[in-house]
Inverse folding.
């Protein structure tokens, strides 16, 4: 089976999100390991929330990292083949790097928490945010943001699917951009429940702090290629990987291009490895002619693997 894996980031968390996987020993083992590293019960956070605690960036980033790694380890424990390549959406690029062998989980967890803290500190809470614009071409969204920037900083942040772009910036800039988008024929514009404007120039200060932290973080060449968000390239040199991670903080996530690059070599399935199913939904709007699957519960593992004994998933 020729598969590519994609890992979800912020926005895919929910209370009790790991309940469908409780029968997979590797999942709980990974959460126990991560909880020990951070000194925080991440399993309780995943299962009990509360929702507002899960939504705090400093919690969301390590939580989604461990969720993706846990499911990937469960996949491998059941005899799943290595993906041909991987990618992670936003913070989940770190998840892909851990699963590819480029970064240790025990290093990645405090690194992501530091990243989240730097991002929040760069933009005071209550002054910035993000919003999704549906039904406009990318070029029009770019134009809308350029015009709205006269009111307040705002830029395209995530090119998630054809006709779906997330913007980030100051609250004033976002409000202006949403009004302009509506006037240009957008089907919908909605603010997201995120206080940190990611992947825009407001994060340049945070990127400098992250660069210093990454310099001290051991990285290896990935065993499995990871296509990055900033350049849509699979880097093998740790220096280039670090550079891409720094630029990712203030550059848009080129997810449409990434998904198309993942399926270009010819694969049997594009698999979302994480709770929620958001990326699988986006991929179905982006590419055709390939199976798009999500590891939505324990039974999905054996269904996708086919030959894996059902009892292994219990």
């Amino acid at each position: 089976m020729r598969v590519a894996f994609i890992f979800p980031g912020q926005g895919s968390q929910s209370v009790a999100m790991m309940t469908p996987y409780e029968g997979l020993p590797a999942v709980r083992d990974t959460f126990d390991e991560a909880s020990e590293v951070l000194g925080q019960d991440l399993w309780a956070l995943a299962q009990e929330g509360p929702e507002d605690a899960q939504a705090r960036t400093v919690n969301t980033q390590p939580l989604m990292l461990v969720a993706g790694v846990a499911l990937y380890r469960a996949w491998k424990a059941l005899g799943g083949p290595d993906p041909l390549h991987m990618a992670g959406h936003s913070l989940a690029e770190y998840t892909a790097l851990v699963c590819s062998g480029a970064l240790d989980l025990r290093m990645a967890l405090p690194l992501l928490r530091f990243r989240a803290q730097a991002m929040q500190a760069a933009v005071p809470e209550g002054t910035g945010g993000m919003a999704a614009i549906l039904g406009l071409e990318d070029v029009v969204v770019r134009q809308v943001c350029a015009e709205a920037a006269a009111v307040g900083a705002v830029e395209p942040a995530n090119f998630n699917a054809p006709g779906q772009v997330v913007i980030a910036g100051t609250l004033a800039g976002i409000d202006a951009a949403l009004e302009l988008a509506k006037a240009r024929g957008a089907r919908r514009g909605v603010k997201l429940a995120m206080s940190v404007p990611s992947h825009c120039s407001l994060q340049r200060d945070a990127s400098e702090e992250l660069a210093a932290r990454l310099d001290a973080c051991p990285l290896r060449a990935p065993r499995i290629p990871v296509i990055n968000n900033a350049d849509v390239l699979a880097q093998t040199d740790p220096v280039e990987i670090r550079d891409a991670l720094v630029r990712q903080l203030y550059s848009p996530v080129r997810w449409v291009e990434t998904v198309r690059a993942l399926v270009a070599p010819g694969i049997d399935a594009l698999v979302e490895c994480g709770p929620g199913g958001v990326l699988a939904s986006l991929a179905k709007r982006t590419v055709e002619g390939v199976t798009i699957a999500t590891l939505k519960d324990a039974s999905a593992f054996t269904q996708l693997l086919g030959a894996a004994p059902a009892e292994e998933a219990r």
Remarks:
- DSSP finds 13 helices and eight strands in the chain.
- The CA atoms of residues 114 and 210 lie 8 Å apart.
- Residues 307-314 have pLDDT under 50 and may be disordered.
- The longest strand covers residues 154-161.
